[in-house]
């Protein structure tokens, strides 16, 4: 078994040794393609509401568990691949500060002064943030949820301590070190650039651990609630409405897709909300009660009822269906092509365009859709 793990580790390392995409703090879109196994989500197709959630649970549960800390492959090792800096593979991207930090400059390693030109400290080392706080349902290191890498992100040690077990919500004062984060007595608001990443981790957790089982085989059920939960160690976390909005405002980027692929290479389970972002609508949004009939084959034909919203937009365009093997082109009113990208498995894009009116073209072998869009 140890031999197989070494082979798997080497395979994943080699697969993702070249990075031509950006981090979540310098996002790119459409470069990294999801490698979803054929029929992976087939059992969820045609289901709605609780039946859909249960089908997703059956698909992603029973993942391969790695130890939290070990001399063999552990969560430190996996995070160093899943969250490495695409521009410097010796470094990690820390979730709340966005800082690119040497992989070796981590909590518990000792000799911190060798970093930051001799001024390194343990407080500035990176450690493992449980996005869903471990005290809210799985406090023991032997619990599978405790070591689930989908729920772990590298974080500055002192910033991790500041976030603590606070819920995610809007508002508060600027954090002294994580300058793009706001915090108050009961909530933490991360940078706009990772709000969607955080939300999709939590959506994964409430599906994967409904139910979850601790190391004594006692069951627990993680639930997202639409309020904050200060001083509460029940298996609940908020704030659902804020997380849904963050999911919409910060769409899946290449860094997040790559992270999902790396973790899948180890744990053999995927985050469905990265692969199929519109699942959020069917479980908590406007499509609750409707059957999820996603196009699961890249070779399927498409109909022509694609809707693009919001329009006007601040730069984020959403699509009412997931685009598979499509080309997105954007032209100025004078006919100059200013955006050209082939995409698959996305239902939103972020555009960095000046305010104005543009012509959008979405096309594949089966259809061509043209639309006028307005950037505010």
Characterization of the model:
Helix content is 24%, strand content 22%. The chain is α+β, with helices and mostly antiparallel strands and 376 residues long. A 4-stranded mixed β-sheet has the order 6-9-8-7, with no helix packed on it. Strands 17-16-19-20 form a 4-stranded antiparallel β-sheet, with no helix packed on it. Strands 1-2-3 form a 3-stranded antiparallel β-sheet. β10 and β11 form a beta hairpin. The N terminus is likely disordered.
- Summarize the helix and strand pattern as letters: HHHEEEEEHEEEEHEEEEHHHHEEEEEEE
Strand order of the largest sheet: 6-9-8-7
Q: Report the structural category.
A: alpha+beta
Helix content: 10-25%
> What proportion strand?
15-25%
Biggest sheet overview: 4 strands, mixed
N/C terminus separation: 56 Å
How many H/I helices?
A: 9
How many runs of DSSP E, i.e. beta strands?
Answer: 20
* Whole-angstrom Rg: 21 Å
């Amino acid at each position: 078994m140890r031999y197989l793990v070494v082979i798997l580790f080497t395979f994943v390392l080699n697969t993702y040794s070249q990075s031509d995409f950006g981090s979540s703090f310098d996002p790119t879109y459409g470069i990294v393609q999801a490698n979803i196994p054929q029929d992976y989500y087939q059992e969820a197709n045609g289901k709605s509401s609780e039946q859909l959630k249960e089908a997703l649970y059956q698909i992603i549960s029973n993942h391969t568990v790695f130890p939290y800390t070990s001399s063999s492959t552990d969560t430190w090792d996996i995070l160093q691949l899943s969250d490495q800096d695409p521009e410097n593979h010796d470094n990690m991207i820390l979730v709340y500060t966005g800082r690119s930090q040497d992989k070796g400059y981590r909590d518990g390693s000792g000799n911190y002064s060798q970093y930051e030109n001799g001024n390194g400290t343990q407080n500035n080392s990176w450690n493992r943030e449980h996005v869903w706080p471990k005290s809210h349902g799985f406090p023991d290191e032997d619990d599978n949820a405790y070591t689930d890498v989908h729920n772990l992100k590298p974080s500055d040690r002192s910033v991790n301590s500041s976030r603590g077990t606070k819920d995610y919500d809007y508002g508060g004062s600027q954090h002294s070190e994580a300058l793009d984060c706001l915090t108050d007595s009961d909530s933490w608001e991360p940078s706009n650039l990772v709000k969607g990443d955080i939300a999709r981790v939590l959506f994964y957790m409430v599906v994967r651990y409904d139910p979850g089982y601790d190391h004594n085989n006692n069951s627990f059920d993680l639930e997202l609630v639409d309020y904050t939960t200060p001083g509460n160690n029940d298996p609940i976390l908020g704030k659902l409405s804020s997380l849904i909005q963050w999911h919409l405002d910060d769409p899946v980027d290449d860094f997040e897709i790559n992270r999902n692929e790396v973790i899948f290479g180890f744990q053999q389970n995927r985050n469905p909300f990265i692969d199929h972002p519109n699942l959020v609508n069917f479980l908590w949004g406007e499509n609750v009660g409707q059957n999820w009939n996603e196009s699961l084959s890249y070779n399927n034909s498409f109909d022509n009822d694609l809707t693009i919203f919001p329009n006007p937009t601040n730069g984020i365009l959403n699509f009412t269906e997931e685009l598979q093997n499509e080309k997105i082109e954007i032209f100025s009113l004078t006919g100059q092509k200013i955006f050209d990208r082939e995409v698959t498995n996305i239902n939103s894009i972020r555009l960095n365009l000046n305010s104005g009116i543009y012509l959008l073209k979405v096309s594949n072998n089966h259809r061509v859709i043209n639309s006028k869009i307005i950037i505010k």
